[in-house]
Fold each of these.
Amino acid sequence: MSFKHEAIYNLYPNVTHIVENLDDTFIALDINEEEVTINMDDVNTKAIELQTADENEQDTLKTNKVSAYRKNGLTDEEILAIDSSLEEYL
């Protein structure tokens, strides 16, 4: 699910599904297939918040992973051999 979809569901709890058009516009529908009016400025702001939170969570997970490997006595080279995506966290 995209962050914009997640933002719409967060901001408009009565939305049950979303149609994304080819031109990147969204139609939000409720349980009765009625269109729910959404404010795209609010959606974009919330999507950025959600993306930032997700990135911060991923950073924390990777930092914790490096910490665990180091507590087990692994060198940076060994850590990279296991998971090369951790290079910027070493």
Amino acid sequence: MHAPVYAYAMATKTISVDLEAYECLCRARLTPAESFSQVIKRARWPSAGFTADGLLRALADLPPLSEEVLDRLDRAQVADAPPGDEWREP
């Protein structure tokens, strides 16, 4: 009696990339036989998303706001009122 033969097929997805991305993938291959899937898996992607620390670091690189802009922001803050309550009677 013969042992059962199992065929494994890896699930795939078809994606579209622009020509520039395709050329980047081609250049990133270590050998002509390396698949694009292998190139993508070898890539290093940032693991952390945007954080408050990243925002503060980016803001530190910006020039300080002028007094005119700060005054305008202060006036806008004072004039800002919460929206009306639609459920209350007028």
